[in-house]
Amino acid sequence: MKRILEIEENSNSPTIDLLEEAIRARAREVIESLYEDEVQRFLNKTSSIVDKTGNKLVVRNGFHKERTILTTNGYVTVRLPRVDDRALEEKDRFVSKVLPPFARKTPTVEAILSAAYLAGISSNKFSAMLHDVLGEGLI
After folding, report:
1. Is Ribonucleoprotein found in the keyword set (predicted)?
2. Is 53 left (phi over 0), alpha (psi -120 to 50) or beta?
3. Which residues, at least 6 apart from 98, have a Cβ–Cβ distance to it below 8 Å?
4. Whose CB has fewer CB within 10 Å in the chain, the N or C terminal residue?
5. CA-to-CA distance for 134 and 139, rounded, in angstroms?
6. CA geometry: angle 30, 31, 35, nearest 5 deg
């Protein structure tokens, strides 16, 4: 609320679309929460793997560098937890299904870009392509 009042009071400031900003903030929270839940399930599954002294061999290990993901709501920067699972074989290590290691776009964005390429962005089929991908009432 305070930020809205600041923008209204200062008419010389650039317009900020608060709705879009709120949607991207919520998208960040959702992505981070889903990833965190996935990490926690993996850690619970591997909690019985310990060394000779009883220390867990698969543990959380801080956070990855922030990563920017392109979503249908714009770019979202996320901070994701890291897992130290070097004690496991390569095939058993943590790989996220929510956000694979090198993913930079959501599957929906990938579909939109692929469909745009196939339809030819400069052609008159572009709005029909967006209608097919995004659905009724979104364009």
Report:
1. no
2. alpha
3. 31, 34, 35, 38
4. N
5. 7
6. 115
- The token pair that represents 20 in the structure block: 């879009």
The percent helix, strand, coil of the chain (3-state, each to 5) is 45, 15, 40
Closest CA to 64 of 90, 84, 88: 84
Structural domain for 83, as ranges: 2-105
Identify whether residues 82 and 62 lie together within a single domain.
Answer: yes
pLDDT in tens, 70-79: 988 889 999 9
The pLDDT of residue 21 is: 87
Q: Which residues of the chain have pLDDT under 70?
A: 1-16, 119-127, 129-139
